[in-house]
Write a structure and sequence with these properties.
Length: about 300
């Protein structure tokens, strides 16, 4: 593996945190990845962004003896930044469930955040889907519950079926949406996906991101700092087709799922008076892999606003 792609490690609050800094100078951009993502998915993006920013790309801890709550994850990132001598305020680029953690970080450390670019973020109101899709069949079809995928992956990893995981994942996200990963990044992603610890941590993150006790404060608007927010969401027409295809759903059902998803995400715009919505019309959930130019557009808007 190329030296530039190796990760450094620090022990933070009992967690072994893997990270890499791209660029020179003080860290000013942090990438908060989605649920179950590993650094290899973002290496090429961090390298590209390092032309303009000093980027911290890190993997959240996997030691589930300490609850993987949004608050604990925010504290760990804050401690990591302190250990890395980052004193200035940062921009956070947050994808999917990473959006929930970016929101938590901004609430706990408002003076440390210049702005946030949310890319198809998870909402603290994600449990709404249970009220809208009440039967077990509808909930499964809706695709909102991501935990079952990790349960299956964990079982395969525990039975030492890593070769099966690698075969399956070559046709699944993130590879389904992007086939230009370097050989080193591809090898790293597939290797990490065979680790039980990754799937255990992902299951715990998902569970605690839906525990009312842990997320109730993230639904409030008044205590969110008035910082610039860019919300980038997927294209509804594109996503509706995917929901129909992968879930074997009718158009009416897929449209209902998509409308709920968009309404939950767009609540992020109400947290700050300095917010803007950008649509990635030709993308589904993995916008950073399919329309990275739109992510750059969001970052440029935020910098000008800031």
């Amino acid at each position: 593996m190329e030296k530039s792609l190796l990760l450094d490690k620090k022990e933070i609050d009992g967690q072994d945190i893997s990270y890499r800094i791209f660029g020179e100078g003080n860290i000013d951009l942090v990438i908060e990845m989605g649920l179950g993502a590993v650094a290899g998915e973002w290496w090429h993006i961090a390298e590209c962004l390092s032309k303009q920013f000093t980027v911290l790309l890190y993997e959240r801890g996997r030691n589930i003896s300490k609850p993987r709550t949004p608050k604990n994850i925010a504290v760990e990132l804050h401690t990591l930044l302190q250990d890395l001598k980052c004193q200035s305020s940062i921009i956070i680029l947050a994808h999917s469930q990473g959006g929930l953690y970016a929101q938590q970080f901004a609430r706990m450390y408002p003076d440390r955040v210049r702005g946030i670019v949310f890319v198809d973020p998870l909402s603290a109101k994600d449990n709404t889907y249970k009220a809208v899709f009440q039967t077990e069949k509808e909930q499964k079809q809706s695709g909102f519950d991501k935990s079952q995928n990790f349960v299956i992956m964990r079982k395969m990893a525990s039975f030492h079926l890593g070769f099966v995981i690698k075969l399956l994942m070559r046709k699944a996200p993130p590879f389904y949406y992007y086939d230009h990963f370097s050989p080193q990044a591809k090898k790293y992603i597939l290797h990490e996906l065979t680790k039980i610890s990754l799937h255990d941590a992902s299951l715990e993150e998902y569970r605690l991101a839906h525990e009312e006790e842990e997320i109730c404060q993230l639904k409030k608007k008044g205590d969110f700092p008035q910082i610039p927010i860019v919300l980038i969401t997927h294209g509804s027409e594109f996503e509706t087709k995917e929901i129909m295809e992968f879930g074997q759903n009718t158009k009416d059902f897929a449209t209902k799922v998509e409308e709920l998803w968009q309404s939950l995400m767009q609540e992020y715009l109400t947290f700050s008076e300095q917010s803007v919505l950008i649509r990635a019309n030709n993308s589904g959930h993995y916008i950073h892999l399919t329309e990275f130019g739109i992510v750059l557009q969001g970052l440029q808007w935020l910098i000008k606003k800031d």
